[in-house]
Amino acid sequence: MSLNLKSQIANLESGEYECLANLNIYDSLECTRLATQAQAGRHLWVTSKNDVEKHLSEAMRDSAIDTSVQVCLCEDDYPGWLSVADLVLLQIATTPYQAKSFSESEIKKLLPEVIAFTHKAMQQPNYYLWGGTVGPNYDCSGLIQAAFRSVGICLPRDAYQQEDFTQPIDLALVTPGDLVFFGTPQKATHVGLYLGDGYYIHSSGKDKGRNGIGIDILSEQGDEVSQSYYQQLRGAGRVVKSYESKGIRR
């Protein structure tokens, strides 16, 4: 273990921190696959120092390329691993994270701004990034989460979580700003933002997608990409509240 690494761990305390820059959060201690991202200003919870040292010892024993600490994002309770090299980009939070409450009518008034965010994101050069929640590259639920967060509304991280969080809406009654969900009969694996007149905007991958943000139509009459997603259509949901952190500390 390097002296610099020892110094970082020695100064680390468990607790709530604020991100000073956009950070990558990974799905394992090896830090090889992105799980999500934390935009500058977001808060996260760092595990205890004893657990940090334990994880580091395990990582070194297993010859992991990167050492990391386990964290949980305060905004959406999303767990993951942060590279030790990024600890310098954290500062102790002076005030605890607290989600802002919104009424359903307040959210409805903000939906044009949410939609505008996705259009602006589409105009930037971008590609589909698994785990991406910070522009210019997003995954499907990352784009939706970022769009609503741009107006202060918090949503859970993944598509299936967003489906569970929203109020179910009959597809015949969808209005601009509602979410449309795709996947298998068992689980939502993809999400888009409804624009009106049958169209929705989403970030889709390379496989039968657009490798980035694009607009498709909920119809069997669309092009190959639209048809592929239409065949996986599960339903729609309306955002009627802002997610409130459960205070999970992992």
From TrEMBL:
Q: Which GO terms describe its molecular function?
A: cysteine-type peptidase activity
Q: What's any GO biological process attached to this entry?
A: proteolysis
Instruction: Write out the entry's keywords from A to Z.
Output: Hydrolase, Protease, Thiol protease
The segment(s) forming the NlpC/P60 domain are 108-241
The reply on keyword Hydrolase is: yes
> What family is this protein classified in?
Belongs to the peptidase C40 family.
> What's the name of the protein?
C40 family peptidase
Lineage, broadest ranks: Bacteria, Bacillati, Cyanobacteriota, Cyanophyceae, Nostocales
